[in-house]
Amino acid sequence: MKTIDVRTGRPYQVLIGKGLLKDAGRLARPLVKGSRTVIVGDSNVMPLYREAAGESFREAGFEVTFWKFPAGEASKNPQVLLELLNHLARLRLTRSDSIVALGGGVTGDLTGLAASLYLRGIAFVQIPTSLLAMVDSSVGGKTAVNLEAGKNLMGAFYQPVLVVCDPACLDTLPADEMSNGWAEIIKYAGLRGEPLLSMLEGEVTETVLSEIIAECVGIKRDIVSADEFEAGCRALLNLGHTVGHAVERVTHYEVPHGRAVGIGMAVIYRGAAKAGICDAAALPILDRLLEKFGLTNLCPYDPAALFEAAHSDKKSAGKTITLILPETFGRCRAEKSPFSTLEKLIELGLNP
Ligand SMILES: NC(=O)c1ccc[n+]([C@@H]2O[C@H](COP(=O)([O-])OP(=O)(O)OC[C@H]3O[C@@H](n4cnc5c(N)ncnc54)[C@H](O)[C@@H]3O)[C@@H](O)[C@H]2O)c1
Hints:
Blueprint: E1 2-6, E2 12-16, H1 24-28, E3 36-42, H2 45-59, E4 63-69, H3 78-90, E5 98-103, H4 105-117, E6 123-128, H5 131-137, E7 142-147, E8 150-157, E9 162-165, H6 175-192, H7 196-201, H8 206-226, H9 241-250, H10 257-274, H11 282-292, H12 303-311, E10 316-317, E11 320-328, E12 331-338, H13 339-349
Parallel strand pairs: 2-9, 3-4, 3-5, 5-6, 6-9
Antiparallel strand pairs: 1-2, 7-8, 10-11, 11-12
Helix pairs in contact: 3-4, 5-6, 5-8, 6-10, 9-10, 9-12, 10-11, 10-13, 12-13
The structure holds nicotinamide-adenine-dinucleotide (NAD).
Nicotinamide-adenine-dinucleotide (NAD) binds at residues 42, 44-45, 48, 71-73, 76, 103-107, 109, 129-130, 132-133, 136-137, 140, 142, 152, 169, 172-173, 177, 180, 257-258.
């Protein structure tokens, strides 16, 4: 088992190891006062892991109930959030009790936000089951639901008490969903370069995959420990996300988050290379990785619609937006820029 300490205001550990799901309850027990817990999961994950997760928490002395919602990004909305909060209230869960997010990033973001709001904050445990959630969304305490005006517009910074990451859960994850996780992993390589880049370019065995997950969590830990509330360097984690979120919006979330981030990276790298900001040698590296992990570098969407959608990105402030600009593959900078720069980069980078 690998242990990664996250040093946020309320510190916690990310534990990574194959088979850890069965130990999740025992590991969470000392971190939670109350004995009642609600395991939250979506309609795909719940039937697969309800029994194992429930058993794990019951064996550790928890009184366990479950709450299920329809799988998919469309459920990440205020209505479903309210249903979950009402459910917790009907159960009369107390502030010393806990909830568990068992699933991908949608489950983690929704459950984390509910945990931050219910009784002004109760403990929650993240058990990520998608690759994307393992390497990214379960760590760092960003929780949110979407509003009509855009992604993640209703949210809070709220850290879990523990993250239990069991890569065995990936055995049931569909290939397309693996690709979505790879997009965020490629993002980390775009930010840090080695050793992750070599790990991605080599053969990815099961052991290497666990090492890659730990490497990504380590990178995210470093960044969020230095800047928990995104006042500075944490913005780097948004590499590819401004255009990525715009792609999600213009396609009405038909293009999932990870795939959209892959497209967003392709656009911003190409745009930055053509604008002389990024070393052109970065492009074939990115293209190779996107192709290897089942992602696309093509962006067949209307540039004006993308630009319009990017306007409501929450990283925009007045007339400026913080853009994450690649300089080489492995180094990026965050730069407050006028919207016209984004417009130009989208135009330049739209297609190869
Ligand atoms: N909070 C953050 O820091 C952060 C970071 C990145 C992304 N996100 C958010 O995360 C979400 C995307 O996460 P995601 O890709 O995990 O989406 P998701 O939660 O919708 O999961 C993707 C799909 O995989 C299924 N699934 C998950 N685990 C499974 C398993 N082990 N076996 C079979 N099926 C499984 C789900 O049911 C779903 O259909 C987006 O809403 C994005 O905005 C948040």
